[in-house]
Write a structure and sequence with these properties.
The chain is mainly α and 312 residues long. It has a domain at 252-306. The chain has 16 helices and three strands. Strand 2 and strand 3 form a beta hairpin. The termini are far apart. The structure holds iron/sulfur cluster. The site of iron/sulfur cluster has 14 residues, from helix 10 and helix 13.
Length: 312
Amino acid sequence: MTSTPPPHPAIAIAAPEPAGPTDLPEALGRWFEETARPLPWRSPDRTPWGVLVSEVMSQQTPVARVAPIWLDWMDRWPTPTDFAQAPTAEVLRAWGSLGYPRRALRLQECARAIVELHDGEVPASTAELLALPGIGTYTAAAVQAFAFGHRSVVVDTNIRRVLARVVGGEALPPTSLTAAEMSRAAAFVPAGDAPAALWAASSMELGAVVCTARAPRCDDCPVASLCAWRAAGYPADAHAARRRTQAWAGTDRQVRGKVMGALRAAHSPVPAAVIDAVWPDATQLERCLTGLVADGLIARTGQHYHLPVDLA
Ligand code: SF4
């Protein structure tokens, strides 16, 4: 934990322009308007549903993998009403290799709730968004900002990292979101809907494409002159001891992904003996199969596994 407040950028850096917290949103906003990636869910004809889908898909998944699946998804199911009626097996196949496929099932529950409670229109209020299945604080705030252009406090891993570096002078934020981080993030949201939405988009974009976790491109950074971490000489990660990076190989996630991949690729139920061959550790495989069935992502009928039949 850092006990000493970092030096204010205006004091620590001889900046070529007035430096201070209020300069950050403006500087990032200008940069974003000139350089923002043309992501499909940012197009002028985007819909609140399209934004909501993009936010759910983008959680823990790189944008490059999300974009083609999102385009296909919106082509098939352009509205919550279309998606609410989709067969579950088709939904899981369309989710493809995005990972964490429970998100797809929750998204369909969300679509059905939107149809039942809001006549098929994504609601704009915080309370109504948070009441939807699978919509947490981050997604609700992101939908408000990016779909409706409303002021909200959007805090994702990219924004946390940008604020930790520029304002906090730290290499990386703590391992989990703290109340202090939320307060700091809230304090940075400009007044007014449009500036606040622009701040959310631009600070997130900086973290995604310039101020990345492992290789920040400070020479290309539009707010380098305001950055406390840079000014302090890039001190080491104070939270490194608490950070655990879990290898992918050998995890239950990998095993579950292999099972889901085999069933997505099949157009008829797959014999259990075939599934048994996807992973050498029978105990781990059994645990994963049990978990997938319990999660509603696969089903077993006799000696065969298959994607779930639609229950709608
Ligand atoms: S100067 Fe470097 S570390 Fe600081 S915000 Fe820019 S990219 Fe990130």
